[in-house]
Amino acid sequence: MTNRKNLGLLLLILAVGATVALINPRFLAPVNLSNTANLVGLFGIFAVAQAFVIISGGIELSAGSVIALLGVLFVDLIATETLSPLVCFLAMLAMGAVIGFIHGWLVARLGLQPFVVTLCGLLIYRGLARYYTEDATAGFPFGASFPTLEWITTGRILGVPNSLTAFVVLALIMGVVLHRSAYGRYLFATGRNEEAARYSGVPTARILIAAYVISGVLTAIAAVYFAMYTRSISPSSHGNFYELYAIAAAVLGGCSLRGGEGSIVGVALGVVLLQVLQNLVNLLGIPSSLNFAVMGSVILAGVLADNHFLRRRDRP
Amino acid sequence: MFLKFESVSKAYHGIPALQGIDLDVARAEVLGLVGENGAGKSTLMKILGGVIQPDSGHVTLEGVSSNGLTIRQSQAAGIAFVHQELNLFDNLTVAANILLHREPLRGGFLRLVDEPAMARLAAPLLARLGAEFPADRSLSSLSLAERQLVEIAKALSMQARLIILDEPTSSLTATETERLLGIVRALRQDGVAVILITHRLAEVQAVADRVAVLRDGRKITELTGPQIRPDVMTRHMVGRDLAQIYRRPARPPADTLLEVDQVRTFRYPTQPITLTVRAGEIVGLAGLIGSGRSELAGTIFGLDRPLSGQIRVAGDPVPPGDPRAAMTAGVCLVPEDRKACGLIVDFSITDNFALPNLPALCRLGLVQRAKTTTLAQEQGSALDLRAAGMGQPVRSLSGGNQQKVVIGKWLARAPRVLIFDEPTRGVDVGAKGEIYGHMRRLADAGAAVLMVSSDMEEVIGVSDRVLVMHEGRIAGELTRDDLSEQSILSLAVGRGQDDLHKEKKRHIA
C-alpha cells in the first residue's frame, strides 16, 4: 500500500516536472536543478523531523520558530570566534534536544495536547529570537569566514549541493531507525494505539518523548544549514511557515495525522514535489503571490485522491 | 395494557438471543426485569426502543399491533430510556440538557434560545422529582445521582409514559438509592409505567409490582406479590444444565506463584484485596460488571499503581505500576477489550506477535525480520490460527482468531502468571473450546492462571477454584464442590456465604 502510494507520488513529480520542462526548458538547466536540490535538502531535513512527531500521533508547530531562534543564536555564537564551529554546532543540537524534550515531556507526562504545546513553542521561540537580536537582522561580521563549515553546509560535490547529501544521509539513517529498529516499531505502535502499546509493555511515554527529541535535533541541524545558507537572519520572518511546509510534505508523503502511519521515502518525495511546485510557480510566470494557493490546491488534490483510493480499498 | 410483546424472537447470526417472549406492561405499573448477563434483557430493550426489529412475533403498543417498532414510533409513544451510561452533556446546563433540540426560541429568524423560558419549563420537572439543584446549574457540578434525575426529568419533559431504568442504582449510595426508589413510586402514582432492570434484587423486591425473569433468551416465569423475593428470583435466574466442558488439571496445584497482598485499587480505595494463585491452577474471578475485577487485573499487570499493598510472583515483589516490570516477572494480561487494548488492529499478525517480544528479536537495536517471521509462524501453528497469511492485518480476522493472536503475543515469553480478562467475549463456540484448551495447557505446564469472567458457563466450566468479587472485595471463595450458578450469583450480588448456609438450612427444615 505504502509502496503504491509512493509510486503514485513519484509519477506525479515526474509528470509535473515534465510539464514544466516542456513549457520552460530552463527547469532542466543545471543551475536551476542544483538550486532546487539545495532547497530539497534544506526543507527535507526538518520534514523528516516533522514526520517523527506526526507518526507519534502529534504535531510540531514550532519548527519555524526554532529555526529562527537557533539560527540567530548560532550566528551570534560563531561570530564571537571564541568557540570552534564544531562546538557551536553541537551546542545547537543540544538546544534542539532540550526543546524537543520539553515538548515531549509536556505531551507524554502531563498529557497536554501536542497542538497546544507546540503552538505555544511557536510563539515563545519567535518572541525570544526577536528579543535576543532586538528585532535586528543577525549576520556574520564583514570578512568572517569559516571554510570547513561553509563547505559542509553550502558547498557542492560534482554540482550536487552538500545540503542535499546531508539530507539523503540523514534520511537513510532515520529511515533505518523508523523502519528497521525496535524503536521505530514502538513509535508506530504508540502512534496508532497508545493503549494497546502500553498493554504490550511498550514504555509509551519514553517513546513519545524520544520522538520529540529526534525532531528537535533534526530541526536544529536544519537551523544551522538555513543560517549558513541565508547568512543573515531577520528574526521576525526567518523560517516563517516552515512548519507548515514540513507538515504538508509529511501529509503528501503518506503520514496520517491520526498517527502510526508514514514512511521516510514518502516524506522525501513530498518535499521534492513541494519544491518542484515552488519552482513551477517561478518558471511559469505565475504571480508569486499565488504561491501558497498553488501549494494548497495540490495538497488538497493529493489528499482527496488518497481518500478516494482508501475508500475503494475498504469497500468489500 | 400499554405495551404487549407476543412470542417475540430474535437471533444474531443464527444464535438465538430471544425465544418466544411474551411480556406486557400496564399503565402505572413497575415491572422488574431480572436475569444474568446475556439472558436477553438488552436485546429486549433494544426492540422496545426501536433500535432493532424482532425476527418474529408482535409488539402491541396502545392497541396498535406491529411486527416491530421504529425509534420514532417508540419515542412518539412516550418510551424513554435511562441508561447506565447517561446520555448527557456535561458541558451544558441542566435545562439545556433536559430541553436539548427542543429549546424554546425567540427573535424570529435569529432563532435565539429563550433562556428564561428554558428555566420556566425545566424547573417544575425538577421540583416534581424533588431535585435540590436549579435548572441553570452546569451539569458538570452534579453528582451521578443528580445527573440521573436530570435524565429522568428529560424523559418526563417528553411526556414519557414508560420509563426504562437500566441498572440505575449500580453507582449510587444507599441513601441515593432509597430516594430513587421513592421517585419510582411517585412516577407510578402519576400513571407512568416503569421497567426496572437491575442485579440488585432487594430493590426489585422493594418497588416492583411484578417481576419477569429471563434466562437464556426465554421468559422463565413471572412473579407477583409475596413471591418477589431475592432467593426465589435467583433460583429462577440460574439452574441451567451446564455443558460438561471442565477438564481436570494434569496434576494437583504446586506452590503459590501469584500473591496479591492487601492491594487497594483506585476504583475501590477502601477495599484491600488478598488472593493467591498456585502454579498449575486456573482460578476464576467472578462477579458483576463493575465489581472491580478488571481494575485488579490491570493493577497486577502494572497498568495502574496500587494505592497500597504488594504483588509477589514466586515470593519476589513485583515493582508496582510498570507493565514492563510485571512482564519481566512473568506476568501477562489478555485484556478485556482486545481491539482497543489487546491488539493494534491495523498491524499485521506478525507485527502484533512481535510487539511485546521485540528485545529478543533485535540485534543492535534493529529488528531481525527473519526472527519475527519465524516467531509468527511458530505461534500461528501452535494456536491453529486461521489466516490467509501472517502479513494479514489483524482487523480482518474473526473474533476468535484475533483473541488467539492476543494470547500468542505472550506465549513466546513462557509466562508464569497469565491473567485472562473475559477471554472469550465475542468469540465463536469452536474457538472458545480451543482457547480453554490453551488455558489448561498453560496451567499444566506450570503457569498460574487467573481468569476474570462474567460468563457463568465459562467460570464453572473452566475454573479449578472461584473467587467472587462484590463491590471491590472478595465476597467469597468456592471450590469445585460448591460451585454452582446460584452460589456464584448469590455472592456476586452481595448476599454473603452465611445467607447461603441459612437458606440451605431452611430448605432442609
Automatic annotation (TrEMBL), chain A:
The chain crosses the membrane at residues 62-80, 86-108, 153-178, 207-228, 292-310. Pfam families: BPD_transp_2. The keyword Signal does not apply. It is found in: Cell membrane. Keywords: Cell membrane, Membrane, Transmembrane, Transmembrane helix. Its main location: membrane. It is a multi-pass membrane protein. It comes from the Bacteria. One of its GO terms (cellular component) is plasma membrane. GO terms for molecular function: transmembrane transporter activity. This is Sugar ABC transporter permease. The lineage of its organism: Bacteria, Pseudomonadati, Pseudomonadota, Alphaproteobacteria, Rhodobacterales.
Automatic annotation (TrEMBL), chain B:
It holds the Pfam family ABC_tran. PROSITE patterns: ABC_TRANSPORTER_1, ABC_TRANSPORTER_2. Residues 3-241, 255-496 form the ABC transporter domain. One of its GO terms (molecular function) is ATP hydrolysis activity. It comes from Neogemmobacter tilapiae. Gene3D superfamilies: P-loop containing nucleotide triphosphate hydrolases. PANTHER family: CARBOHYDRATE TRANSPORT ATP-BINDING PROTEIN MG119-RELATED, D-ALLOSE IMPORT ATP-BINDING PROTEIN ALSA-RELATED. InterPro entries: AAA+_ATPase (IPR003593), ABC_carbohydrate_import_ATPase (IPR050107), ABC_transporter-like_ATP-bd (IPR003439), ABC_transporter-like_CS (IPR017871), P-loop_NTPase (IPR027417). This is D-ribose transporter ATP-binding protein. Keywords: ATP-binding, Cell membrane, Membrane, Nucleotide-binding, Repeat, Sugar transport, Translocase, Transport. It comes from the Bacteria.
